[in-house]
Amino acid sequence: MSKHWSENRCRQPFFEKARQKARRAIEKGILVRPDTCEMCGKKPPPMKNGRASIQGHHPNYDEPLNVQWLCVKCHRKVTPIGKGGGKVFFGSENPQAKLTEDDVRLMRELYKPWVFGAHRLGKMFGISKQTTLEIVKRKAWTHVE
């Protein structure tokens, strides 16, 4: 396991929760990893370490069993990381981000339990209640003050 991956996992625990649920679903046979990429249709050979070349991509971490099966090349097109695998894109730099850093600051300012709560804020910003709670409790978007 690479150092940057484990650091990212600690910073974004809800990512890891979605991955764990998907892994358990694969183990139980609920999700089945195909041999071919859903994007390009190719059947890549296994990686040098013996692991499957088809990776599960979560378009939305709030739906952990909604997985798109992609080869490594297509997965990097959808979720880019820097050269050498070193940089993970956080916040609005991430192409999948639904929010900006200013949105996160506004959410944290507006959040008042039982008055202007997570459900209402989530609807306002187009994200789930759970993701909203992760943001206002500073478990997600931790790089934003």
Can you give a write-up of this model?
With 145 residues, the protein is mainly α. The protein has two domains: 3-88; 93-136, no CATH class. It is built from six helices and two strands, in the order ααββαααα. It has helices at residues 3-11, 13-28, 72-78, 101-110, 118-125, 129-136, and strands spanning 54-57, 68-71. A two-stranded antiparallel ribbon has the order 1-2. The longest helix is centred in the N-terminal third of the chain and has 16 residues, at 13-28. It is elongated, with a radius of gyration of 17 Å. Mean pLDDT is 81; it is low at 1-11.
* Helix/strand class: mainly alpha
Q: How would you describe the oligomerization state of the chains in this entry? A: single chain
- Widest beta sheet: strand line-up: 1-2
Distance between termini?
A: 29 Å
Enumerate how many helices there are, as a single number. 6
User: What ranges have pLDDT less than 50 throughout 5 or more consecutive residues?
Assistant: 1-11
| SSE pattern, N- to C-terminal | HHEEHHHH
Percent helix range: 40-55%
> How many structural domains does the protein architecture include?
2
- Using DSSP, what is the number of strands? 2
Mean pLDDT across the residues is 81
The geometry reads as elongated
Major β-sheet profile? 2 strands, antiparallel
Fraction of residues in β-strands: 5-15%
